[in-house]
Amino acid sequence: MDYEKIFLQITDEINTAGNPGQVASYIPELSRVDANRFGIHLTTLKGRSYCYGDANEKFSIQSIAKVLALTLAFNLEDNKLWERVGVEPSGTSFNSLLQLEYEKGIPRNPLINAGALVICDVLVSRLKNPRQELIDFIRDLAGDQSIDYCPRVARSEKITGYKNAALINLIKSYGNIHNDIDTVFNLYCDLCSIEMTCQELSQAFLFLAAGGINPLNNKRVISVSKSKRTNAIMQLCGFYDEAGEFSFEVGLPGKSGVGGGIVALLPGQYSIAVWSPRLNAKGNSYRGMKVLELFTTKTEASIF
Ligand code: GLU
């Protein structure tokens, strides 16, 4: 299929539709991005690449990184992980405190902030140097050693992340954070600050389209079963309280971040990353959602 031709058709359509979203500003450092940036990159399991626009520019991947932290923690803990974090969609915003109190410190899923904080706690417990091992893991997935944390963004999150600080304290009060709060919180802020390009992201997520094997080096990243479960979690929980809308419009497992990135994948076929920093009211990239909806409509391929 000529994906680049489809990208051109899609961008013609969305250019006439406007881009009414807002760049995330609650993390001050994120508001410095150029709101009109726009990139797409698709990588197939056969190793072919198709791109459009600013596909090779680094941006803050934010919550997209939570899927990769989950992958690492799932490998370390196996199914014991699910004693500490659920697999249900939250139906609330990504940093909500409400549910957490009702559910006694067990976050609904690993992709909301509360769940990712517990995942970071697992990494702190299980790894000798979690910060280094996490970034090494992501570099290997993407086949790119330049991928790194952004100290400016991480710092911005640390000093303004009042809600995340409340979340981690609440979880700790229920005994579901085992390590020192500052250590876990720092790892969480570093995780969210990782910068990648659309090209690197689509490569890094390809193992989830390939039953857990990274086609770049034929190394098994996770088992077939864990790959299935991770995709299921993305499908149900990857878009804040808009996961139903994304499933309905796009029909692929995926994950978004408040930096304006979205990654989605079609098992057996490809992984695609889109970046456009203006967000809709639910915190998902306005254009990213539109692009992917048009993409699966035009290619007539989704998981459904
Ligand atoms: N670092 C962001 C936060 O914790 C992540 C938000 C996101 O991309 O969902 O608020």
What ranges have pLDDT less than 50 throughout 5 or more consecutive residues? none
> Can you tell me the CATH superfamily?
DD-peptidase/beta-lactamase superfamily
CATH architecture: 3-Layer(aba) Sandwich
Overall SS class: alpha+beta
Strand-residue proportion: 5-15%
Task: State the major sheet.
Answer: 5 strands, antiparallel
Helix content: 40-55%
Distance between the termini: 19 Å
Mean pLDDT: 96
Instruction: Please give the order of strands in the largest beta sheet.
Output: 2-1-9-8-7
Descriptive terms for the model:
alpha+beta, 44% helix, 304 residues, single chain, binds glutamic acid, 9 strands, two-stranded antiparallel sheet, Beta-lactamase, five-stranded antiparallel sheet, 12 helices
Word description of this protein:
This protein has 304 residues and is of the alpha+beta class. It has a single domain (3-298), classed as DD-peptidase/beta-lactamase superfamily (Beta-lactamase). The chain has helices spanning 3-16, 65-77, 98-102, 113-126, 130-142, 151-160, 162-173, 181-192, 198-204, 224-237, 243-249, 286-299, and strands spanning 39-44, 49-53, 59-60, 195-196, 213-214, 219-220, 254-256, 261-266, 270-275. 50% of the residues are buried. Bound molecules: glutamic acid.
How would you sum up this structure in a few lines?
By secondary structure, the chain is α+β, with helices and mostly antiparallel strands. β7 and β8 form a beta hairpin.
